[in-house]
Each structure stands twice: as structure tokens, then as C-alpha cells.
Fold each of these.
Amino acid sequence: MYPKGLRTLALATVATLVAGFALVFYYAPLDADQGFIQKIFYLHVPLAIVALIGFILAAVHAIRHLRTGDSIHDARSYIAIHISVIFGVAVLVTGAIWARASWGHWWSWEEPTLVSFLIVFLLYCTYYPLRYAIEDRDRQARYASVFAITAGAFVPLNFIAVRMAESLVHPRVFATAEGGMPAKMWITFLVCFAGMSLLWLTLARFELSAKSTSASLARLRRALDGDSVTRTETATRPTRTVPARATQS
Amino acid sequence: MRPFAAILAKDLRVELRTLQSIPAMVLFSVATFVLFRFGLDRTQLDGSLAAGVLLATLLFAAVLAINRLFVAELEQGGFDAIRLAPVDGTSLLAAKAVALVVYLALLELVAVPAFAVLFLDDWGGLPALFGVLLLADVGLAAIGTLISSMATHSRARDVLVPLILLPLLIPVMIGAAGAADPLLAAGGPEYGDVGRWLAVLALYDGIFALIAWAVYDFVLED
């Protein structure tokens, strides 16, 4: 059972990503300094930006969850963090490959953006142990939202602090990469960025529908077993809540 | 204001009678200094190395107190009492955070002179260093209280507190170590660059104090 538009979204994602990678290899010029390896930029940077936007989105959904108490927002916040953490693994791996190819080391502490990203990634990894160490569903959702809000505010603050720590030792000119980029590179980058955003959205929508389907399946199964009258009532209601939630006390 | 004062007085009195947090933190800190003496194989420290050893030790020691901050409330029904009483939940947050700042300040009053005796040649930067540490303590207390009261309700309290807290405290480490580095410099303290790091710490304190205050009611709610 697919929700409306998921198939179209998935097809659009595939088309944009294919177009983006075609542009990367056949249209974008070779970088004068770094040569072919610079093309990983079109993978690494969109992934990182989309992952960070995902973390911020998770905080926004968490605020809405705390304000309304509707667990659909908690589910969205969870999925946003989940997909962004997966993207984060890809960001760190592609970043390490790029660093190895252009500086000869797998890791560079002089690159404040990459270091900040590692710290943010480490923080969001602790979302899972926190969430799954709390048994009560309602409390689990609330604490997960509190975490998502705190961590969402942490993201920009952390970038400021890490950049300051670096600029003291290595004065660096910001906008070296973006500022001097030719138009052909910009177009390629924007198409890749659009593709990655669509990929994130498709994965998030897909996970949301998978979770709500398995939740309603569990609810139907309980209803079939004749568990209790109240449960049957909730089962007949069309609902998209993901972690099955007891009626609000 | 009265519930805040009552909870704070209760916490400080309990700590005074049981002595379960502060002496443990002090012992932990001094033992860690000795560990670093052999780990680094250095008898004298200055600059960034001194700042790093001192602040890493103090942050880890803080985790000991943060772990225990709400245990009594959970075991003896303090959380339920707060929910039953007609008081604002944030007074619990504020009282616990201020108690934590007091614990950390007392820890630093003992641990920093001990560190100076063990490793430092020049003690001139110490008065300013206490100011930096106090600013770091406020941020540590705001975020530590929030995380501790969530972790207390989980199955894995002792693991979760350091796990979540350490990444969150990296900006505190950056700010406090950046400020402490010139204060502990080999040739005597320099004050030129300290201000910008204090600004980072103050920004951190402000943001997380506000966030903790804004979300704390949802942590207490049941």
C-alpha cells in the first residue's frame, strides 16, 4: 500500500540523480587543481547539506510534536534523524576519500566543516540508545523530541565554535570553493543537490509509509485476536501514527 | 521562588550530610591528574596541554555528579512529589542546575589548586581561570541537568549520560580550553584573546539555558 505520489517521487528522484551524475561526468569541467577527484564534491557536499537540513527538520517536527502531542510528528522527527544519520555515514566516508586523494591523509583536523560534521554525527548517533532505553511509549516520544530540539540548536552553535577554534590557528578565506566556482560547476552542483534532496524525501516518505503500514497491521492483528473493545475502535480509525500510542490520559 | 529555594536548600543539605558527590569528584580529579602525569610522561604542563588536561578531567568529574543528580528524586519519589505539588516544574530544573554549579565550583576550588601544585610553574592566571570555569559550569549545569533527568528515567542511565553529554560538551571544551590556554601559558598569563572564547561560552550558556527552560516541562510530564 503506497501513499499517493510516492511512485512519482521515486521516479523523479531517479531521473534527477541520473541527470546529475551525467552532468558530473560529461558536462562539469575538470578542476584545475585537483583533477578528477574533485568530482566527489558533487556527491559529498549535497549529502552533507541535505543531512544537516534533515537534522534541523527533525527539530522542527519535534517542536510540533511537543506542541500538539500528535505522534505523527514524533515519527517524522525520528525518520528525519534516521535518514540523515545514514546520509551522515556517506558524508564521512566520501569526505575521508576526498581528504585522502587531495591531502594524502584519511582525515584532516584542519577542515572545520568536516570536524563539525563528525561532532554532530556523533551526537545524533546517541539518539538511538536514548530512544530505545525508555520503555514507556509516550515518554519515549517526548524525550526523543526534547533531544531532537536540543541537538537541532546544537548544530549551528557547534559550527560556530569549531570554526573559531580553527581560524585562530589557520586563518582561512571562506568561500574559496563556492565563490570562484564557474557556472558549469554551479549548475551541476545544483542538479546534484536537488537529486539528493529528492532522495532524502523519497526515503523518508518510504520509511514513514512502511512504519504506518506495519503499525496498522499490528493493530488489525490485535483487533482480530479480540484483544479488547477499545483497541478495536482505534483499529477502525484510519490512522497514520507510527509508534502505537495508548489513548491520551 | 520559594519552591526553588526549598529544593536547592534540600539538595545542598543532603549533599552536606551524605557527601556522596563532591568528595568523589575531587578524588577522581586528583587521581586523573596523576594518571596524566604518567600517561603524558610530563611533570610540568603549560599552555594548551595544561588546559586540555585540566578541562578534560573536570568535565569527566562533572559526569559523576550529573549521573547522580536525580537518582534520589527517582528512588524516593521526588519527581512524583514535584508533579503533585502546585509548583512550576522549572523550579526543579533551576534548583538542580544551581546545585550542580555549586558542586562544580567547590570541586574546582580544590582541584584547580591541586593541579597548580602538581603541574604549574606560574600561578598568575589562576584568578581569571576561575572566571572561565564558572562560565563553563553554567553551560555544563544547564545541559547536564536536562540530560540527567531524561537519562534517569531510562534503563541505561549510567551509560547514557556520558554518551549524550560528551558530544554536547565539545563547544564548552573548545571555548574553555581556548580561554585557558593563554591563561596557563609558560611565560605568564596573557589576556588578549580570552574575550572571544568567553563570548562562545556565554552564547552556549544562554542558548542551552533557554532550551532547557523551554522543554523541561515536557520532561517532567507524565
Note: The interface with chain A takes residues 143, 146, 150-151, 153-156, 159-160, 163-164, 167-168, 170-171, 174-175, 178, 193, 196-197, 200, 203-204, 207-208, 211, 215, 218-219, 221-222 of chain B (CB under 8 Å).
Amino acid sequence: MDTQNQQQPDIVTSQNEPTKKPLDMFKNLKLPQLSSKHKKAIITAVVSVIILLLLLVLLKALLGRRRSQPEVAVLPSPTPTPTGFIRNPSEYALDPQVLAIEENVKKLESDLIMTKLDLSELQPPNLDFGISF
Amino acid sequence: MKLPKVFIALLIVACISAAPALAQEDEEFNYERAYKDYIYNFNLYQNAHSTYQLARNQYLQAKTLTSQNNALEATRTMLQARDQTMITYLTAIRLKLAETPGLSDIIRDGLYSRIDQEVAWLNTHKENLTSAATLEDIVEDSNEARDRLGIQKTIAFDAMRDISSSTVQIHRQSTSDIIAQIRVKVSEIRGRQNKDTGVIERWILETDNRVTRSLEKDLEAASEYVNLYDRRNIPTYLDYVKSVQFRFEESIQYLKEANSYLKEIVKEIKTAD
């Protein structure tokens, strides 16, 4: 590694010797002489940054995918019980009169649901009464 | 001798085969059929109106005798189609009234009589259109029908109000009947003293309150209906919906709430203390 870094300016100058003008600025370029300790630290830092970036990209991709899916709200639901089920029945639970009343309430409920008060189909037709010549 | 016998036999066969067909025809003429007739005639009117507009424009541009005659005929056809549309429209309303349960005979017969009177007027008017010889005559005939429109629209709105009112009234009566049945049962339970009826009795009062609110909304609808005619000579359907129909819908909503209370009351009766 050391030798490579030291040789780099030489390589550049030797390659560009025929066209000196554009690379004149590199001629005077002096790279700092780094110790092996510093170089290791820099390499470790660069590698860690790359790994961190990769991790961030991965996390973003995962979170983005989750967000794009429709969110389903999970609400706490009560324990399912059959309709009309009574845990603690009274002595009137099977009373014929009470059952008849219950039946009437159910029938009325379905009648109310079926009720159609909208009479828009019977609205007067739009006819032209403004005849003139 | 043979000929009369054969003739009588054929007559009997014809009568037997025709009777069910006629009966079937009578049975099938319900609101659904009447409404289809009305829509069919309305479409015919729309076609006739397009032809009338074209003929009218041609006459106004050309002012020739031919174009005048074409305009007269197109107007006549359109006015006849317009009368027929109103006839079938009023007939559909009549059939709707016939199929609406809970309407009192006085209200229904009153509306029938008014509808029949208007249908008869429209039929005569339609016949008279054939005698119109000039464009002035036909415009005058059209104006006669225009002047009658207010009466016909009022019949339609009256019918709609009565149909909605009777529908709500039937459900309110059913709710009141169930409340009465529950009251009898609760009174019996209270007498036996084996279940606390305090909560149930309070809930019955709440249910009663909802029924009263429903009745109040019906009265508001009736009052709004009167106001509707104070504001405009001939109200529009939108005016009717905003002021009257909306009150009936609120009334039904109160009855739905009452019904959900009744369900809770029954559940409470069936549950031990």
C-alpha cells in the first residue's frame, strides 16, 4: 500500500508526459505521508461508512415496502357469542309471550330496514310547457 | 240446426280461453307495469320534442308554408306525447297509492278522484289538439295544459306526502303495539316480584320518547308541506325533498332507535338479575 501511494504521482506524470499542459497541476501535488496506523484508521472509517450506508439503504427499502402495503387496523374484538345468546337467563327467557314479543321486534326491525321513503322516481317529469313561435 | 250448435260451442270455447287471459292482464297491471308505461311514454315525448325543436327552428328560419305546416304537425305530435306522459305519470301514482298499505280510504279515494279528473281532462285536451289548424291555436292549447300543471303537480306531491306519512305511521303503530305488549308483561313480572323491573320501565319510557319524537317529525312534515305552498305557487321536487321528505326520514330514524331499545328491553327481560 505504501509503495503504491508513493508511486501514484510518478505513474500519472509518466503517462501524461506527451500532453503536459492539462495535468500540470498534478505535478506539484504532494500527498501527505501517512503512517500505517492512520491509513488503517481511514480504511476502517471508510468501510464503516459504506456498511452504515448499505444498512440504511436496506432499512429504507424494508420500511418503504411495509408502508406501501395497506395498513390493516387490528381492533380488539369481543369474544364471539351467538346472536341472542344470554349467559345468565331469567325464568322469562323461554316465556312464550316474551318470545312472541322478541319475534315482533325482529320483524319490525327488518321492516324498518326495508322501508323506502325515497320517492324520487315519482317526481314530476321535466316537460317543456314554454311553446312559442 | 247444426250451425247454431257449432257457433254456440265455439263461443263457449272462446269465452273460456279468453277469461284467464283477461284476468291475467288485470292482475299484471300493477305499479311496476304502470311505471314502465310512464317511462316508455316519456321517452316517446323526448323524441317528439327533438323533432318539434328541429321543425320550429326550420320554420323560424325559412318561414315557408311547408315549414309552417311541418312545425304545426311536429308541435301537435309533441303536445300529444306530453299529455300522454302526464296521463301515464298520474296513472303510475294512482297504482302506487293502491299498493301503499295503511292509507285511509278517505285519503286514497280523494286522490283517486282528483287523478281521474286530471286524466279525463288530459284525454280531452289530447283529442282537441287534432282540431288545432294554426300555430296560434296550438300554442293556445299548449298554454291550457301549462295552466293545469300546477293542479297535477299538487296531486303528485300530495300523493308522495301521504305515501310517506302512511308508511311511517304503520311502523309507529307497530312500535306502539310492541311497547304495549311489553308493558303488560312487565306489569306481570312486577306482580310476581321475582325480577327487578326498574331499569326495564325506565327503558320503556325512553322508547316511548322516541315514538313521540317520530310523531313530532310527522307533524313538522305536515307543517312544512303547508309552508311549501306559501313560498312558491308550484314547488319543485327538490323543495319538497328538503322540507317534507327530510322530516319523514328523521321520523323513521327515531323509530329505528326505538326498535333498538326494544331489543335491549327484551334482552333485559330474558336475563336474570
Note: The radius of gyration of chain A is 43 Å.
